[in-house]
Specification:
This protein is an alpha/beta fold. About 35% of the residues lie in helices and about 25% in strands.
């Protein structure tokens, strides 16, 4: 079950290594719901989910 107070973070990063590292470390916090995107098309397709933070 997801925490209703979690912070939704979207990562838009085309560098595989950096995106994976950022996703890994942010996901260690149980209060963060993290999604990673490697293309702007995928990112804009999910933007309706209204993330709290985009990096």
């Amino acid at each position: 079950m997801k925490n209703p107070n979690s912070l939704k973070i979207f990562i838009l990063e085309d560098d595989v290594w950096y995106g994976s590292m950022l996703n890994h470390y942010l996901s260690l916090n149980p209060d963060y719901e993290v999604r990673r995107f490697e293309s702007s098309k995928a990112f804009f397709g999910a933007l309706h989910e209204k993330p709290d933070v985009v990096t």
